Amino acid sequence: MTLEDVRMRGFRRRRDAPEARQLLLERIEPLASEEISLWEASGRVLAQDVTSPRDVPYFDRAAMDGYAVRGEETFGASNYSPITFRLVGEALPGRAFSRALLPGETVRIMTGAPLPPGADAVVRAEWAMEQGTLVHVLEAVPPGKYVSRRGEDVAAGTLLFSRGRKLRPQDVALLAAVNLSHVRVIRRPRVALIITGDELLPLGSPLNDYRIIDCNSVMLDALIRRDGGIPSHMELVADQREAIRRHLEEASRSADIILISGGSSVGREDYAPLLVAEMGELLVHGVAMRPSSPTGLGWIAGRPVILLPGNPVSCLCAYDYFAGPAIRRLGGLSTDWPYLQVTLPLAAKIASELGRLDYVRVRLRENMVEPIAASGASILSTTTQADGFVLVPPDCEGYSAGQKVSVYLYDQYVSAPYR
Ligand code: AMP
Ligand code: MG
Question: What is the model's pTM?
Fold first, then answer.
């Protein structure tokens, strides 16, 4: 593919943001699956439906501490007219009573212990009085009372979880209960991070000139992990065509998706778009969104490549809009926003240009949405002061004060914003 060199001339036409996102995502399929131990399975995504191979519980068991009986033999029992049974033994969890219960007999039984054959109900300990080898029962219990039936929790053959389920801690407990020790999950996407910029120094470096610390690496690393990916780091890469090319080549062999930070625009040192076009296909370069317009999308050797602007605010926004859903789809997860939403009225208007998608950082104050006035996209602290963001779609010119808008919250729950 040949590409007209847009360097130092600016983008002639920016691609519609939702359309660019669609172009990227429609070409991405979930990765292959792998079999893993349940110990590793929480947080992973099931590659296939899981059906229970057995009943849980596997036998009828006591749901209370007390005495196992035939329910019909207790009919008529009360405080004033107890019915007396012969105590012939006990049943404990994991240790059954040795034989079937005969008429008039009872055994002491603990919660979780198997009910002896012949018994069909449990009298709670507080409703019986033990006296030597006799038990006086003070309440009537119908058959089935305080008994957890075989298959009551899970019946063999039941669908436990569908393909695509992100397993929770309690899910792996249920899989353990039916004795499935391994599950088949979607492989986690390996994400190559190529961080470019001559001015960048690694975190922790002494600072004494005009160079700056690379903050995109730690942020992208955290975002990739949140989305289920495995970030792989390479050292910081200078704005040199050959160096970037070498890293792209290596990444296209070792990773499932490649993220490049910096050098994605139309400056003299912005080689990434040209290289992607040379080595593969540059699908999109320049998107009608603010921030993040110098975003690019492409493919090298069948791997998606996402060119993220170096500016950390734009980088966050472009990651969330393009890279996050791409990584989640590779990993079998949903491409929907990973943020909860609240709908609240605006405290001040938000203006937006027709045709452009705006990502507006906002604060929540007294149940109102306050846009954070940000002149430049380079003020990183606006993202830390924000509780979330409002998206103004391309076909909308903005919102007026008082209008209700949907806010995507950076945090997973909605308590903190109501201060
Ligand atoms: P670029 O996208 O390379 O044109 O960079 C845009 C702006 O973001 C410049 O001011 C860069 O110095 C800054 N920048 C680029 N990469 C990073 C990074 N990894 N961490 C912090 N700032 C960056
Ligand atoms: Mg740069």
Answer: 0.91
- pLDDT score of 234: 80
Give the model's pLDDT for residue 208.
83
Contact 264 CB / ligand 1 (< 6 Å): yes
Ligand 2 centroid–CA 198 distance in Å is 7
CA distance 310 to 194: 11
- Nearest CA residue ID for atom 3, ligand 1: 262
Identify the sign of the CA torsion 306, 217, 31, 227: negative
CA 72 to ligand 1 center in whole angstroms:
80
**Best residue among 196, 209, 212 to mutate for probing ligand 1, ranked by most atoms within 8 Å of CB:** 212
Ligand nearest to C-alpha 309 = 1
Residues of the chain with confidence (pLDDT) below 50: 1-2, 415-419
Give me the DSSP letters along 52-119.
-SS-BSSS-EESSSEEEE-GGGGTT--SSS-EEEEEEEEEBTTB--SSPPPTTEEEEE-TTPBPPTT-
What CA–CA distance (Å, rounded) separates 379 from 313? 7
User: Domains of the chain by range and CATH?
Assistant: 15-32+190-330 (3.40.980.10), 33-56+152-186 (3.90.105.10), 61-148 (2.170.190.11), 340-418 (2.40.340.10)
Closest residue by CA, ligand 1 atom 8? 311
User: How many whole angstroms separate alpha carbon 320 and alpha carbon 326?
Assistant: 10
Q: Which ligand is nearest to the CA of 199?
A: 1
How far apart are alpha carbons 15 and 92 in whole angstroms?
69
- Determine if ligand 1 sits within 6 Å of the CB of residue 201: no
pLDDT in tens, 376-394: 677 999 999 999 999 999 9
Ligand 1 atom 7 nearest Cα = 311
Q: How far apart are alpha carbons 123 and 65 in whole angstroms?
A: 8
Contacts of 109 (CB under 8 A, 6+ apart): 62, 65, 66, 67, 68, 90, 91, 97, 115, 122
